[in-house]
Design a protein that fits this description.
Elements: E1 2-3, H1 16-25, E2 30-31, E3 34-35, H2 47-50, H3 65-89, E4 99-103, E5 110-111, E6 114-115, E7 121-124, E8 129-133, H4 134-144, H5 147-164, H6 172-192, E9 196-197, H7 202-211, H8 230-243
Parallel strand pairs: 4-8
Antiparallel strand pairs: 1-9, 2-3, 5-6, 7-8
Amino acid sequence: MTQRSGGQPRGRLAAALVALVVAAGCAVGVGESGPRDSGEPAPGQPRSAATPDPRTTRADGTTSIEEFKGDIAAAVRIAEGYWAAQFKASGQSFRPIRRIVPYQREGEVSCAGQPLPRNNAVYCSRGDFIAYDVRWSVAAFRQVGDAFVFYLLGHEYAHGIQARLNIRSEFTIQQELQADCMAGAYLGDSVRSKNLTLDEGDLDEFREGLLAVGDDPDQPWFAEGSHGTAEQRSDSFFRGYENSLDACGLG
């Protein structure tokens, strides 16, 4: 995935991308009451994907901290620009998410007084910030590539937009599937506007990765922390990717 303003192409998305994002991006649900304390992956989320092996590195040489920082900054910038344009088009003022906070140790960052665990990335509505475990994120970046960063920020930023629009769903699965759709819209629209460029084969691998993940078949859809089946998550993401925000039920 290549940003329009510069940088070197990194090659294809790895199918592991979505597994990594799903395993960590919302393994802790953050709402007005703070995060649900969970040191283990949520049901149905692969344990191995939650902690990528930092020794495993993409063949295209995506390794440097400078590249990682640059991609984080680009992902935030593009997300802010995208959502600012959407709000302006609907006649609303836009307020960017207040902070993007890296952390290294469990408990270093708290949401509503509750410590965030390692191997995670969350949006905290109480403090209006996105926090991510930088060690885990860099390891995933090195294993998967820069597309991981853009999806991760896109999904968590979607939760921030839900908070700004006062979208409150009865069940976790509704919030998560909508955030998948919004992340798809953000990425699809950014590709169509040429702010981002996909390399050949990226969408096929992205689709394969989405179909490979999802909640455990035995997990009730109404359980706290449910994200949806592999088919539901894939359908939600690609509805957004192909049809933009009209597909995401924001109205």
